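User: Round two. Same drill as before: sequence, then structure, for each protein.

Assistant: Same drill it is. First protein:
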Amino acid sequence: MKIFLIASECPPVPGGIATYIGNTAAMFADAGHEITIFARSDKTETEERNKLKIIKIIPKDTYLLNFTKVHPHSENHPGFPYNVMGYWGAVSYQLAEEVINYIRIYGQPDVIESEDYSGIAYFLLQKKLLGYLELKGVPIVVNLHSPQYLLYPANKMPSYHLYDYWVGRMEKFCILAADGVFAPTQYITQQVKTTLNPDLDIEIIPLPAPQKLLHQEQLSLSSPTPGDIVYFGRLEIRKGIIPLLEACSQLWDAGINFQLTAIGGDTWYHLQGCYMKAYLTEKYREYINLGKLIISAPLPQAQLYERVKKAWCVVIPSLWENFPNTCLESMLLGKVILASSAVGHVEMLQTTEMQGGVIFDLQDSNDFADKLNQILSYSKTEILELGEKARTLILRISAPENVLSKRIAHLQKLIERHQARNIFPSLNYLPHGKVAYPSSLFENPDISIKSIVSVCIPFYNCGHYISETLISVFASNYPDLEVIIFNDGSTDKKSLETLAVIEQIYSNLKIIHSENLGVAAARNKMVEIASGEYIAFLDADDRVSPTFYAQAVKVLEQYTNVGFVASWIKEFGDSEKVWVAWNTEFPYLLAHNTLGVCTVVRKAAYLATGGMKSLLAENLEDYECWINMCEKGWLGVVIPELHYFYRIRSDSRLQKSNREQLLYLYELIAALHPQLYQDYGVEIYHLLNQNGASWLWNNPSQNIVELNVNSTGMEILSLVTNKLKKVYSDGGISLILNRLLRLTKSFR
């Protein structure tokens, strides 16, 4: 079988995902399967050995100091398109491009697997759903490992900062959009089903053990040292390090003699605003000085294994855990394990037939002390016997040959059953979204002409631009077009003369003259008289790509729940920015628009939901229309390519808008959809509370809000402060300083 693995970590880098990828790739390759890994890395290179190829990819750096005159969000920026997305969005897009380009050269795999973490398969799945030929017929499988949307609450971190929130939305989309989902434990399976859909089909398959720990004759014997307790793993809230040290300090105060060594990487402790190691060192300095507590940096794997072998017991006190390598490796090393209850590693440590470790009750404050005292009282012989039971049990669960047979059976089932969908996945829908799928609109005969696209262009004094707009429309590769221009009471003489001229040039163009009704009413009038099954909205000063209509119709014909299709947006004229649009998602869509007016809309859906409202004559009529259609169950889907070219000019309606106008219109929109805003009220509150006024938002994946001329001084200060915090938390300050240092050295 030919398998692609998509990963956010690249072996042999330490980390749970990298370890899993290394173990899984070895398992498949040793069995004769052809494995190609596409992994985020700190260097670009390709490694090949036997049936295994590792393609290491450096993410495009959104914080690069590029001395260029172009706008940082421009298509001409050297980092495009990664400069217009947040870090994980850019990683996902880059990995999708790498996979698709590889397929063009070397052919398709039988299956692609990706972890859920950070939604790295988002654009790969989006492009497959949109019909990219390179991915046609290839099942994409998601492995439930450790999605951020579950880890953030477990680590007591705020979850609604846009950058983090959108990563969670990407993760959830990947799980819903995948052709197959598997998980190593019932624990994470139930959590995902609870947060997404209880009817999700998730296969339970344990993770494979590492080859280097499989053969006991190649391992030095476990040599437990009395009183030597070891914790290894990140110093992280969800890992239970805080209650562990608190419980140990109480035991030390009670005169219980043992030493705890905590080995692991440092993490930021959000609740205290400091690093966890600094917090723990300060709080438990007394025990560190007495030699009872040692807090150690991570060790290289070989040294770590030797250190763990000396432990009397390994403690795993996690508050949230899936299928940890800490537990897997400790069991294979023949160690006694004291582990917390009610999380994923319990499924590794005990089965109905066998007990492979000691479990303490997280809810009972005395149970940890009782169980640790019990382990400390064991003889060395008893410790070795318990450790051997642990090893025997985990070999039954995770021996590569056992895991491999389950994985191959699962993949073959997915390949055999794989077929194209007719429902586009979305988080909007029940049971955990708030809307149902759209009701049937086709019970009555549809008088529209099938497959015709009616391009509807409202026109008001745009004589300078309309010819350019029409040239782009008639350059379309879609054969079945009708074009309608609605002259909405134009007063400019030259504009009226231009209309008269183009009416003579284009025989397949219909021009309707009217008194001024406003853009919403103009669009509605055109839709009513249009003969096409689909409506393409386009403003009279904008342009469209030659392939957009064909691609959009393809999506509308395949997915019965898609009401409209849009694309990324390229600004021109007085701006050169690129705007990344996203599929329409509640509740984000209720606070900020995610796409432009240049869309291809299902006419029947548009008419059934009432079209655009003249009540919003000043602005945002298209935005409210998208909300309304989505409330009725329709979905807006975005093609992640530049198809809409949006002219920015100082005299346009949008450019003349101001803060007070927008705030009033947002009030109107909320009043038009009271139940929807009520249903999503809690989430909207968190989004606004953690990100500020939504009319200042831009791209949810970037967590960047562009300054508006109407912002108050306090709002500007807040935005700048938040941006600096984001750069700092992403390591951007360190990156900038390192590059400045290199630059300084180069001048010496």
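Second protein:
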Amino acid sequence: MTSSQVLIGVGLIVALAVGCQLLAHLLRVPAILLLLPAGFIAGVLTDDVNPEKLLGEAFSPLVSLAVAVILYDAGLGLDLRHLKGHTRTVVVRLIWLGALVTFVSAALLAIPIMSMSMAAAVMLGAILVVSGPTVVGPLLTFVRPTERLQRVLVWEGSLIDPVGGILGALVFHGVLAGGQPGLAAQLGAFGVSAAIGLVGGAVGAAGLWLLLRFLTLDEVLGTTTQFAAVIAVAAGCDALRDDTGLIAAVVMGMALANLPGLDMPARRPFFETLVSLIIGLLFIAISATVTPQSLRHVVLPALVLAAALVLVVRPLVALLSTVRTDVPHRERWFIGWMAPRGIVAAATASTFSAALVQAGVGGAEEILPATFVVIVATVMLYGLTAVPAARFLDVRRSARSRPLLVGGDPWVVDLGGALRSAGLDVLMWAGLDRQRQSIRDAGLELAPGELLAAATGAGAELEGITDVLLLTDEDDFNALALMTLKETAEGPVHRLMPPNRSHGVVAPYTGSEALFSAGLNRPELARRYAAGARIVTREVADGAIPAGHDMLFLVRPDGQLTAATESTSPTPAVGDVAVLLTPSPEPRPGTASAPRPPIGPGG
């Protein structure tokens, strides 16, 4: 290809990848729904986007390294200490038992349905084990299932990607070893491959742990160090034996997530941006290699295989994984109706199928197009039916707001109690031990871990946060937290109004209005509370509020939380619950959980 064709091809791939992700964000659909057909159509219309012609022999190694980065990032989220009780039981079963059942079933079904050899069918079965958070996450955001369902499915997607990557790499080397004479030689080759990946991952994890533990690295240098280490270790392992770098990358991520003495941040902006771009590029590039000729004799058998996986295998996996647990039957059925395939399936199919074709494995040329069809079929099916299925099974989350209150001062704890008495599911976070204890003593739910994980649901710990209220007595902390969280939290993020004419670490304008009416800033609110003012709730009867009371929030009859801000005050209506700050001289009328008399003329 000429240099002009290469430039045009690279530009088209990047533009299509980002453009499809942007359009998917605007349409609120999984990006894969647009990426796969866009890449396939581009590959049909022009050869410029075909990565095998653009990159030649470098394409397969680059795909392997790209997948290693994705799996490393997924491995960083695999801190199993966050899973407890029956939820942990279900997730663990979905990983090991679900992977085993899916692997065996897909392999056995592929032999008669796809007319594949045993070796190719086993490889396809290993590839189709994975699901992936990059597909499941956007679907669940749109569906809004119950919190436990969300937690189970997101954790399954996060865990099954690296597990599937390891299984795929091991099966790949086992298939290649199967062509060698003698059982001892086959087992030896299989063991060598596994050992190279495990040792490489252990060495890489140890080196990274030492660097991150004992060197003072800023965020940029720390993330680039991790990126360089993953690429170097994965490339070194692959150079010794093909695709062992995938095993090493997963081992590195899992080790760093669980080794003592090292707290990995909940948010990894560099890796998140890089992984998002890699996913888009891989989907466009891989789907561009799938030609209409390769699909001609594969589409119908692959659709039959996909139907069997969706209608038989996945419900069986859900049943086996939830038996003898407290998961309700409706949630079990929904777990059985959510297993779309994603980027790791496409990338591993592209990487492994090419090598197996070169090795002369019968039916290996059908692995990539069959995987492509299964990905498209499952994503389209689940994407179109997930919401109706969740609505039919009645497993969607309540539309009521779920605020996260950040702070542990006495008035903040009372505010949490008031919002809870108004019917909201309140979550709180505080950094000081005494504040966290006061939250527990008040019977309010306390978010574990760090603030970013609590506010954004990183690691599938806390989903469903609709509002973040930054209410600490540190104005600069509130401002910095707002600047960080407003880019990642699903709902609005508000902070307390700082003292007038104060000089903080960020500009006064932070892109979000401060809480409460003008003049009711942090020092004034704390002063009035110390003087005897209290936070109470009242049910609105005629739209009026008691004289001298300050409106803080309104809770609408449908459970939606509306905050009073420095420039706007929500208008109460009949049926609303008003959260009010009483005047300072007024003695405490009762606790937030006391019965709420209706608001009438004069209070």
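The radius of gyration is 27 Å.

User: Perfect.
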